[in-house]
Amino acid sequence: MLKRIGRLARLDMEENFGMKINLKTWVKVKEDWQSNDMIVNKFKLK
Question: Is the pLDDT of residue 45 over 70?
Answer without folding.
Answer: no
